[in-house]
Amino acid sequence: MNIDSIRKKVIAFLNVKCSFSYCLGRGQYEKFDGYIDKIYSRIFTIKADDGRLRAVSYSDYAIKNLKIYLK
After folding, report:
1. Which residues lie closer than 8 Å to 28 by C-beta, 6 or more apart?
2. In the chain, what are the domain boundaries?
3. What pTM, to 2 d.p., does this model score?
4. Under a CB-based contact definition with an 8 Å cutoff, are residues 54 and 46 in contact?
5. Angle at CA 65, nearest 5°, toward 63 and 70?
6. Phi, psi of 20, deg, nearest 5
7. Yes or no: is domain 3-70 CATH 3.40.50.170?
8. What is the pLDDT of residues 22-64, one digit of tens each?
């Protein structure tokens, strides 16, 4: 998998309501709902329902630190 193929997968979720699970390390996960707000060359931003904005790299999605589930 390269960054371009991962980016195409992420673009499919752009502005679609999703659930996210993000690995914080040491067996800790943060789960939240929201949508992918903007896509950039090396990162994308997620707007959570609680109003927070998170920046995530494509490599986080590639190594499965971030999981995206359709609602």
Report:
1. none
2. 3-70
3. 0.89
4. yes
5. 105
6. -125, 145
7. no
8. 999 999 999 999 999 999 999 999 999 999 999 999 999 999 9
